[in-house]
Amino acid sequence: MNEEERRRIEALIDRFTCDDIESRQQAQNELANLGAPTLGLLQARRSAGDAETRARCWDVILRITRVEKRGDVELTALV
To answer: Which of 79, 14, 76 lies closest to 42, judged by CA?
Structure first.
């Protein structure tokens, strides 16, 4: 991940504290769509942010890494 990507991800995570709920939800969706490259920063902020940030970081982490079972096959979904 380059510096520009890192700053973009951090800016999206910072939006979790925005007063506008739609802005927080949009940031959450954008991070989930970016997928695995966001995981390191989400993990770091999950343990250091306020309650809203921690909860939203955890939700995005789960959305990116959730395991779906279909029959005998397990698929790790990278959103």
So the answer is: 14
List Cα–Cα distances, 77 to 33, 62, 70, in angstroms: 11, 10, 12
Is pTM beyond 0.85? Reply is no
Give residue-wise pLDDT tens across range 14-67.
999 999 999 999 999 999 999 999 999 999 999 887 999 999 999 999 999 884
User: What is the dihedral sign for C-alpha 51, 52, 55, 61?
Assistant: negative
**24 token code pair:** 């927080």
Question: Whole-angstrom distance between the N-terminal and C-terminal Cα of the chain?
Answer: 18
